[in-house]
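Input chain follows. Return structure tokens only.
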Amino acid sequence: MFNKKIKLFLITLVFMLSISAVAAVDANSTDDIIAGDVDEEPPSGNVNLLSASEDTITADSNANYSISSVDTGSYYSGSKYSVVLSQGDNPVKNASVNINVNGVSYNLNTDSNGKVSVPLNLNSGTYVVSTSFGDVSTSEKVKVLPVVKGKDLTKTYSNTKKYIASFYNSDGTPLKNKNVKFILNGKTYTKKTNSNGYASLDINLKVGTYTIYAVHPKGYKISNKIVIKTSVIASDVSKHYLSSKVFSATFYGKNGKVLAKKYVTFKAHGNTFKVKTNSKGVAKLTIISKPTSFKMYSINPSTGEQKTNTVKIVHTMSASKMTVFSDKTSTFKVKLYKDDKLVKNAKVYVYIKGVKKTAKTDSNGIASVSYKLAKGTYTFKSSDPYTGDSISTKITVLAPTIKAYNVVDAANVTSKYTATLLDKNGDIVKNKNIEVTFNGQTTTIKTNSYGAASFNYNLDVGTYKITLKDPSNGYSTTKTIEIIESNIGTAYNKYGVSEDGYSLLAIGRASASGELSKYGYTFYVTEFDRTCPCCGSHELYWSIFFAGSEYANWGTFPATGNGEGSSAEGIIVCAHCDSDWSVFGHNHGGSGGDLTVITPTKSCTKDDAYTLKSGKYVAS
């Protein structure tokens, strides 16, 4: 009997200890933690929501586990994704389950129903969610729906259409009577949703394209484009004076449809014009204005929008300013337009130094006038006789920057050709290159301390061309070297310079003090050493009858381009220091410094003077 009581007591004690152990397990269970306890912003990588305790269940490879999602299909951003872990028909509680959402892994313990949940704080789209417990895994595609919806908005300027967005809770129900935000053009606006979850924003912006953001209270946001279309379409206008081209603009109402048969306003030059649109909403304005540029304002009476354009009235002619050289004949060209097109066979008047010249346009609408002027700055006036329009063009004439001469020389004799380089002021240029093209070859020669560039030649009988170019400004000149038989005498060019450049021949009449009483007013010839006694240069030149007649006294000296007297008598000039002498070698200044005579003075004729002036004088 006693043994039976002991046995009963032991059985009761074991039962009570078992109950106590079960209670202890329940008291320490952590199966209440679900996804709602997780931060709304999911971290990257692995997330251990609970560390496995001694009571956490791990996978048994021999057990029959299964994983199933609670809901399938679509979820709203911010909602929760849940799965249930089962063993057979029974949920498995307090088991560590891994869920991977968009590359982020969560380690969670199942609750008493075998369920775990994670937040779907994702942008709208389709994602793959993978769940695993031991060797058991599953994956499915989950579609996340936006909790904010909106559409791009396009409207005409001043149209009252609003931007509207709909807002939702994470369960997809409308977000009612809650403050939401819109961000537009750098400003933030707070609006309250209505009973259907809609919120709107008035759009009062200038013409252009903008981005608007609709922001959910939970932070989710979307963006849309806002396009404000102009209600006035017009372009800048450029037209020639008195052409038929008009300024036109197309107008639209607030509804985006053309503003037909309505009066619109144009403003220009301080004047206001009311013009009625046609059936296509187009209004045109005829422009009659002198060449100028001004702003045209087109005002839409329906929307209040004002469009600004530039109207440019240009001359009926165009010409480019020119920089030329005084020793060359140049061509001035003028383009003529009629009704915005180049016109052929039409007259153009060009005034040069007050002298009117008439030219006709060619097939390209270009009228050309040739001219040759002394050094200086000029203004050419071009006039269109059809419209009365006129333009002025600046012409700059520079003095030649290379001094060179035609030469007559003897055959098969080594001689030297010399050219002088000058700047724009007529001063010599030292140690600079002159480009020389001669006998089919081009080379460069550097000037010496006198500004002279020289080269030797030995040629057969014939006439040769030599082209000299100043690389600094593009000026070029072409001269001739005429080679004659060497046994017929010494040749001199039109400036009296001998073929070797060392002597100067002068023909003329008395011009210095005391000469008239000695020689009378008849012609004489004298040969001099070509060296200036005043400056030592070899830039001595002769000329006669350069004033336009045999009796005029003052004119432009051919070799220098400067004004000189004694044209009727003949004169010798130094191009370097501007000293001058009579044909007998006497200094006109009367202070000494006479030229050195090589061949004594002898009588000659006026015909001899003309022969020397022509550059064909040969002395035996």
